[in-house]
Amino acid sequence: MNVTIKEVAKLAGVSISTVSRTCTNHPKISEKTKEKVREAMKILGYEPNFQASNLASKNSKTIGIILPIAENFSYQNSFFLEVIHGVCQACIIENYMNTIISGNSEKELLKSIKSIINSGKVEGFILLYSKDNDPILEYLNKNNQIYTIIGKPSKNINNTIYIDNDNITAGKDATDYLIKLGHKKIGFLYNQGNRIFVQDRKAGYISSLLENNIEIKQEYCLEKNLALEKDTLELQELFLSEHSPTAIIALDDIIALLLEKILLNINKHVPKDLSIITFNNTLLTTLTNPQLTCIDINNYQLGLESALQIIRHIKDPNLLPTKIIVPHNIIERNSCKKFENN
Predict the structure, then answer these.
(1) Which pLDDT score is estimated for 300?
(2) Angle, to 10 degrees, between the axis of helix 50-57 and the axis of helix 5-12?
């Protein structure tokens, strides 16, 4: 009976794609790993099928798109649709295909990724998120997989291909905009504080307050899960108090929409009682009344650039890791007004 590549991978303790890349002497595979694979091949008497190896490791021409785990509103956020649109357009240009990988937990997501890697059907991955201590990223690194991140990596930043906005400057620009309108009691409303872009936007918010000699109030740094009644009630209490902020920077469009709903429930109105500026500039920002002022982070361009870069590095593994910063700009609509202290 012929020995299969799967048996070699099992004996060597690596993925099928790693065996395939060893057969073609892929530079991304360490010499130590190559020796381990070659030893397993020798023990089993495996003769490489280079046609199969090429299919698995070089010519599948498929990119895996890894979504964050399904946390509350992730898949209702059209940010991901716009980014994926950009990825798909790049794949069409480069004659590549793509497949979406998702899961309801890290364990489930990791299981899907392992299965795809072992099948050898994907050449590289695009992660649509970045966060601290990510087991998905650790697994990809351990198994010598090529990937790019949309967002700034939490570590190994100089050795990672990534596409991002300057989120610190974006957070600062949003805060500066409100300060120029006369606001000093400005809140920052966010969730999932372990995400890198959240930390960066918050840092920009704080930087702007410091530069403008405005006191940083911890009660205005609002890390809330608006799907929880407890957090919703706490926000209502804040906006009904005499210490209520006059303006809010919302982390994204979904949070801004949920905030508007909370305000309506306590008979508060935008921008009369509270000015709101948000991020992403998806279709949702134009469907509200009033329409939302926002920081446009060019979602489509993030997706397009991420796919173009991963394909470049697949074609030439010797390229140095690339960092691309996609510009942002402010879209002024009707959710912010000048603050007048009556």
Answers:
(1) 97
(2) 70
Q: Reply yes or no on whether the pLDDT at 1 is more than 70.
A: no
Q: What is the C-alpha separation between 199 and 194, in angstroms, rounded?
A: 7
Whole-number Å distance between alpha carbons of 129 and 152: 9
Which tens digit of pLDDT belongs to each residue from 37-58?
Answer: 989 988 988 876 544 444 444 5
pLDDT of residue 67: 93
292 near 271, Cβ under 8 Å?
no
Label the pairing between strands 186-190 and 221-223: parallel
Please identify which residue in the block is written with the tokens 């059907």.
Answer: 121
How much is the CA Rg of the chain, to the nearest whole Å? Answer: 24
Burial class of 144 by CB neighbour count within 10 A (0 to 12, 13 to 18, 19+): middle
Cβ contact 14:56 at 8 Å: no
DSSP E strand boundaries for the chain: 62-66, 97-101, 124-127, 146-150, 161-164, 186-190, 221-223, 247-250, 275-279, 293-296, 323-325, 329-331
Provide the sign of the torsion angle of the four alpha carbons 310, 135, 133, 282, taken in this order: positive
